[in-house]
Write a structure and sequence with these properties.
Number of helices: 5
Radius of gyration: 14 Å
Strand order of the largest sheet: 2-1-3-4-5
Number of strands: 5
Oligomer: single chain
Order of helices and strands: EHHEHEHEEH
């Protein structure tokens, strides 16, 4: 049985490659999606890769993952620092969660140092660019082999 990991991306990540490349790099979201697909295949996983600029839509996707997916890899972007609703949805999913950020949020503005997701996540990866997504999927592969 192939486990599916839901890969969720929050607001403004659709602009990757052109938005603040000094902070977020030149890779596009399509590049990261392709990386996740390749990595998942290498690890014997499947991925569903999604991005939205609408918080309610992201929450609906989390709800739909419950009982259907094996885990959630999430880059909540700006909602990391603001959304109790996303945190509550992740908790309600009863799935393992890994939080990923392209930039090192701890080297940025103080308001970015607080995450509503980190303390409920299996792990947090930040500052390693798209490689963080790869690492998270590799970790899910190991985590799910234990099931």
């Amino acid at each position: 049985m192939t486990h599916t990991v839901l890969v969720l991306n929050g607001p403004n990540l659709n602009l990757l490659g052109t938005r603040e490349p000094a902070t977020y790099g030149r890779e596009t979201l399509a590049d990261i999606s392709a990386l996740c697909t390749r990595t998942a295949e290498e690890c014997g996983l499947a991925v569903e890769f999604r991005q939205t600029n609408h918080e309610g839509e992201l929450i609906e996707w989390i709800h739909l993952a419950r009982g259907r997916c094996a885990g959630i890899l999430i880059n909540p972007a700006a909602w990391t620092h603001t959304s109790v609703a996303i945190r509550d949805a992740l908790l309600a999913s009863e799935l393992p969660v890994i939080e990923v950020h392209l930039s090192n949020v701890h080297k940025r503005e103080p308001f970015r140092h607080r995450s509503f997701v980190s303390d409920i996540a299996v792990g947090v990866i930040c500052g390693l660019g798209s490689h963080g997504y790869r690492m998270a999927l590799q970790h899910f592969s190991q985590l799910l082999k234990k099931d």
